[in-house]
Design brief:
This protein is mainly α and 468 residues long. It is 62% helix and 4% strand. The protein has 20 helices and six strands. Bound molecules: arginine (ARG). The site of arginine has 10 residues, from helix 7.
């Protein structure tokens, strides 16, 4: 009894692993190796995992029911203290796992020291990240859906606005603004799919792998998986503690999502410029310049574009951490957390703010329509007209090129040409050519599946609405 008490006091005084050490840890080493300054955010999932583990230990009679009850009560008490901000995380206790275990032992006595039976921090941390990532990914999927809804609403509200579609950032062919906006819906739909797919591999229980080899205790991993709602358990203890694929997959899906948000931001920045004048951003989502009083800057969009760099960096960071590691767990892997958390925070913040901003963007149909009509954006329609009259496409392309060249020389638009002039370029041209040269007709003509005609865009919106 005195021995138990003595070792209990010693445990509380020193580090949980201090048994084989003669010297105290250098302060600089403590600071260098600690992770609690950033992994404290895993506390809820750490406790959730520990409670499931303890329930299993009692069920398998590895610890007594009495001890298990004591531990669970203690853990819930710690959770309440952390929640209320009263808990002080200590750097000298290294990480979130040991902070909580230490607090537990302090609170409930030697029984608390039984919580780590049959597990290691290696499978514990893998579990915590998976639980955290599972919640976070589900949240991100919700946020993506909300943003998609905002995009579809904007498309629906502005369904018939015409704008120039671009290639090489040069006016190419007229399109519907709604069609352009829905392109982002499709990108986000793939992103959502990628996160759903990630979840399958996040949702695997690693606990029970212990340090790397498994454990001699008669644990019941299926039972723990059931309690924590994991549909699968890891099949190889070495893999389970050294795998961070799911972190990389998540950041990778995030980097691609951010790339999409960045492209959207870039377009809106351009459209908001005086040069384009296609949209006006809401005052509430822009900021002023400290020196130029006339300015209204699209900072939210610029920062979304800028933060994409961070997430891409996070991906490279974790890939680089993992690429040279021998099996199984290595401390390098502690470096997975800051990039992961940074990605989670960044993605959530960007989705949230863009979703809020979307319905408040004012589109400027006049400017868009003028830009769509200017230039020679219906030239392709003329070529297609000639093809329908029997001319091979390559020749039609050439003939239309000649018409455009003529317009440029005479400083005219296509619509300003009269029929006689047109006929000089081809005998196949007659009165009906003017129909296909108008912007509206050009758009309405694009009836191929996935094309920009109002009919097709409406059909897509209907399909999207029915799916939800
Ligand atoms: N803080 C550590 C991490 O984040 C927990 C696992 C530590 N394991 C160990 N054997 N030192 O990776």
């Amino acid at each position: 009894m005195t021995f138990i008490l003595l070792s209990f006091i010693l445990t509380l005084m020193g580090k949980l692993w201090s048994g084989r050490f003669k010297e105290e840890t250098e302060k600089t080493v403590e600071d260098f190796t600690e992770s609690v300054s950033f992994d404290a955010r895993l506390w809820k999932h750490d406790i959730q995992g520990s409670i499931a583990h303890v329930k299993m230990l009692a069920r398998r009679k590895i610890i007594s029911k009495k001890d298990a009850d004591l531990i669970i009560k203690g853990l819930n008490g710690i959770a309440a203290r952390i929640e209320s901000g009263k808990f002080r995380f200590r750097k000298d206790l290294e990480d979130v796992h040991m902070n909580i275990e230490h607090a537990l032992i302090k609170k409930v006595g030697p029984a608390g020291g039984k919580i780590h039976t049959g597990r290691s921090r290696n499978d514990q941390v893998a579990l915590d990240i998976r639980l955290y990532l599972r919640d976070g990914t589900r949240e991100i999927i919700k946020l993506i859906k909300a943003f998609q809804r905002a995009i579809v609403s904007a498309a629906e509200k502005n369904i018939d606005i015409v704008m120039p579609g671009y290639t090489h950032l040069q006016r190419a062919q007229p399109v519907l603004l709604s069609h352009h906006l829905l392109a982002y819906y499709e990108m986000l739909e793939r992103d959502r799919g990628r996160f759903e797919d990630c979840l399958k591999r996040v949702n695997v229980l690693p606990l029970g792998s212990a340090a790397l080899a498994g454990t001699t205790f008669p644990i019941d991993r299926k039972y723990v998986a059931g309690l924590l709602k994991f549909p699968a358990i890891s099949e190889n203890s070495i893999d389970a503690v050294s795998d961070r694929d799911f972190v990389i997959e998540f950041i990778s899906a995030s980097a691609l999502l951010m790339t999409h948000l960045s492209r959207l931001s870039e377009e809106f920045i351009l459209w908001n410029s005086e040069e384009f004048g296609f949209i006006e951003l809401p005052d509430a989502f822009t900021t002023g310049s400290s020196i130029m009083p006339q300015k209204k800057n699209p900072d939210v969009l610029e920062l979304t574009r800028g933060k994409t760099g961070r997430v891409v960096g996070d991906l490279v960071s974790v890939l680089t951490v993992m690429k040279g590691l021998p099996l199984a767990y290595n401390r390098d892997m502690q470096e997975d957390k800051e990039p992961l958390f940074d990605t989670m925070d960044t993605v959530m913040a960007c989705l949230l703010i863009l979703t809020k901003m979307m319905p408040r963007i004012r589109f400027r149909p006049g400017n868009m329509e003028r830009a769509a009509a200017a230039g020679f954006s219906t030239a392709t329609d003329i070529a297609e007209y000639l093809v329908k009259k029997g001319m091979p496409f390559r020749e039609a392309h050439h003939t239309t090129g000649k018409i455009v060249q003529y317009c440029i020389e005479k400083n005219r638009t296509l619509m300003e040409l009269d029929l006689e002039t047109m006929k000089r370029f081809s005998k196949l041209i007659s009165e009906d050519i003017f129909r296909c040269m108008s912007v509206d007709m050009s758009i309405e003509g694009k009836q191929s599946v996935g094309g920009t005609s109002g009919k097709m865009v409406r059909a897509r919106i209907r399909k999207i609405r029915n799916k939800r």
